[in-house]
Amino acid sequence: MSDVNKTIQKWHASFKKGTDFDSWGQLVEAIDEYQILARHLQKVQSAASADFTEDQKKTIGKIATCLEMRSASLQCTQSKEEFKLEELKKLETIIQNILTYNKEFPFDVQPVPLRKILAPGEEENLELEEDEEDGAGAAGSTEVLPSRSPASQGTLLPRLPSEPGMSLLTIKIEKIGLKDAGQCIDPYMTVSVKDLNGVDINPVQDTPVATRKEDTYIHFSVDVEIQRHVEKLPKGAAIFFEFKHYKPKKKFTSTKCFAFMEMDEIKAGPIVIELYKKPPDFKRKKLQLLTKKQLYLHLHQTLHTDS
């Protein structure tokens, strides 16, 4: 079997896994699977590869768009433009026969242009970030940020079902203080829970693009549901917050800084945590504060307990 056919087989397996989760009502798992597959397909669509023709890449991109639409429908139950599971399942044979498929695509969608999102630290090889103590100051006005990002709605997941004697944690990301807040384009936060070795424990979530900036603050005011009961989080785990923004000159999304919360900091109420220089150090071994200025990430924690 050729490498291309093996790739297509993996896509089909991932698609089937996602739709199975979806039909069983395991929505968190379905969303995760759909988003992983969509990212893979978008990378292939935008790559300069001879494995697929331009028409095939366009179809691959449209499949990725449908996966994102279904994922968005599962996250927003009140959406008027719901993309149903029955509709998504129509794409299964297209994925299996992508090399020979030559019919009209069943849905009126377009491939979402893939904005290059680099792995943590990868952008270090492409640029030197301006020093946080230098550069122009932030604008001192209130402004609504335009939503240019394809992923402007984020990938936030719903709260898990409650369990007797267990606690669930909702973290409201209120705002982040940055000297050059006014210059950040399409800012959003990636939230993850990692063990001592920096390995993901839960699905990674992206917030929607922030809607407002004011002086040296970018306001998010968004709730993130941690995807595991607090009592089930392993000892030494931490919740990470990576601040990302788009760089039009470089044409990629860059991690500007990060912050994290350790398990002993989980308690109801407001919390302010320090910002560290990129790349994110998920093992928490070599941490460098972003700035000497008093600029922080402002959060509010809510614990839900089913007694």
UniProtKB/TrEMBL annotation:
GO terms for biological process: determination of ventral identity; negative regulation of determination of dorsal identity; negative regulation of JNK cascade. Residues 125-161 are annotated as: Disordered. GO terms for molecular function: phosphatidylinositol binding. Residues 125-135 have a biased composition (Acidic residues). Gene3D superfamilies: Axin interactor, dorsalization-associated protein, N-terminal domain (1.20.120.360), C2 domain (2.60.40.150). GO terms for cellular component: membrane. Residues 157-304 form the C2 Aida-type domain. Belongs to the AIDA family. PANTHER family: AXIN INTERACTOR, DORSALIZATION-ASSOCIATED PROTEIN (PTHR28654:SF1). This is Axin interactor, dorsalization associated.
